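Exercise 7.
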Amino acid sequence: MTNINSIEVRLGVTDIFRSVDFYSETLGFRLTTLWPSASPQFAILSRDSTRLQLSKSDSDIHSDQSPMCTLWIDVVNVSESYNTIKDKTSIEWGPEVYSYGRREFAFRDPDGYLVILSETTDDPPTCDGL
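Solution. The predicted structure, written as tokens, is:
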């Protein structure tokens, strides 16, 4: 097998511009591709060495079931990220330290995708989860 250089997530979203704004304002992503320019159906966002693809979805992603994708993002400072994000969106849970040695918190994007920010820590667990 040849080398795998990267993997990128492509999220189906109901509104490209709303999602671009959310990921730009909440997590500091930068819009690098918007296509086609007349009526955008696809976008690529980037930050540091990470890229996120957004694709306009014609299906009803707001069905009775939650979206089937969770974004798990490894960061350097969860506390700083939390303090930056907490006033921009509703926090689902955390920050907490888990028994597997990670400090994490989570929130949802406008289409309901769960976004978890996580960092390695030696601190003792602060909750009973995993």
